[in-house]
Write a structure and sequence with these properties.
Layout lengths: L9 H15 L5 H23 L34 H14 L1 H19 L7 H11 L5 H19 L5 H22 L6 H6 L5 H14 L1 H14 L6 H25 L2 H4 L7 H11 L4 H29 L1 H30 L1
Length: about 350
């Protein structure tokens, strides 16, 4: 009788497989199996990600802004950025910022005033009483006092600009003071601790890049210098007719607008170049991008500042020049000292609004 074959057990089957693998000169590799499993899992995850990711057609399309070219007649391009606040609003924000940090700012301002007194001495030798008497004798009538006060205010402004002290020393003092106030305003805007010592120690690093940006602005103001030279050259030949005068004034006005157009962007490079690692021409290029599509609006905001300062100065100085003449020179000196931080606070606020 033939014997029945019994099926091999699991242990016997595993032993036979192991024996066959040994005979073939190979052994099972569990590491290779784990690697293949991980690769399959990774492929599965990538596939699921590709399935769930939005298609390129479903993504929102971005419209390409039209290219703007200066001095070319074309349709106005609206800026995609937020609108700028009014000049009066920016001026109030600048005064609020200075008032919040009034203690360290007063310390910085005191050192700046001392530098002006020691090095510049703008108003030394001014005889305001004699000038006041001359103006009062020239202006008569009901509005004579007002015109005399305004004339005295204009005389003080002219003395501060055309004096012998308005040279190298004054330029150096204003330059160093600008760097100090820009650094202090940046710290105040960021809410950092502001100390007078640090303002003068740490603000002088971008001195050379700051001067180079000023050189660029000087080159951009060349149209105004050329217009002033031509106007003076025409007037030096004696009285001219009304048509010639109107033509010269029109040319001078156009050159003035051209100079302001060019400087209206580079003026913000003065604040950008004070950032660490920013080169002068890089700052000029970045400033040009800030005012893109809204240069005329920025020009109006810039021109609001001297108008506000002149009105405030006239309101303060006209009564003092008329009724408190002996102290008018020193009051005007204080106003000129305070003007620099106010200007930089306004311009820095406007610069931050453009970002």
């Amino acid at each position: 009788m033939a014997k029945k074959k019994t099926p091999p057990t699991k242990k016997a089957a595993a032993a036979s497989k192991k024996t066959a693998a040994n005979q073939a000169g190979t052994t099972p590799q569990p590491a290779a199996k784990d690697a293949s499993r991980k690769a399959e899992t990774k492929v599965t995850e990538v596939a699921s990600t590709e399935v769930t990711a939005p298609a390129a057609e479903d993504q929102p399309r971005k419209l390409k802004l039209p290219e703007y070219k200066s001095f070319k007649l074309q349709k106005r391009i609206l800026s995609p950025k937020a609108k700028l606040p009014s000049g009066l609003s920016i001026f109030k924000q600048a005064l609020t910022l200075l008032w919040q940090y009034r203690k360290p700012m007063l310390g910085v301002l005191a050192i700046y005033a001392l530098m002006n007194i020691v090095l510049v001495q703008i108003f030394s030798g001014l005889d305001l009483n004699t000038t006041k008497a001359a103006f009062q004798s020239a202006y008569a009538g009901h509005w004579g006092q007002l015109w005399s006060g305004l004339s005295l205010f204009g005389y003080l402004l002219g003395s501060s600009v055309n004096s012998q002290a308005a040279g190298a020393y004054q330029f150096v003092v204003v330059l160093l003071g600008s760097l100090v106030f820009i650094w202090a305003l940046r710290q105040a805007f960021e809410g950092a601790e502001l100390r007078v010592r640090d303002a003068y120690y740490r603000s002088m690093q971008p001195l050379i890049p700051f001067i180079l940006v000023l050189v660029v602005m000087l080159l951009q103001s060349a149209p105004l210098l050329i217009g002033s030279f031509l106007y003076g050259f025409v007037g030096s030949d004696g009285p001219v007719g009304a048509p010639t005068l109107v033509l010269c004034l029109a040319v001078l006005f156009l050159l003035l607008v051209l100079a302001l157009y060019l400087i209206s962007s580079s003026i913000f490079a003065l604040y950008i170049v004070c950032l660490p690692g920013v080169e002068p021409m890089q700052a000029v290029k970045m400033a040009r991008q800030l005012v893109q599509y809204r240069r005329w609006l920025v020009m109006r905001r810039i021109l609001v500042l001297p108008l506000i300062l002149l009105i405030i100065g006239a309101v303060i100085m006209v009564p003092i020049a008329l009724f408190l003449t002996p102290i008018a020179v020193w009051v005007f000196f204080v106003l000129t000292i305070v003007t620099l931080p106010v200007i930089h606070a306004y311009m820095y606020k406007l610069y931050r609004q453009l970002l």
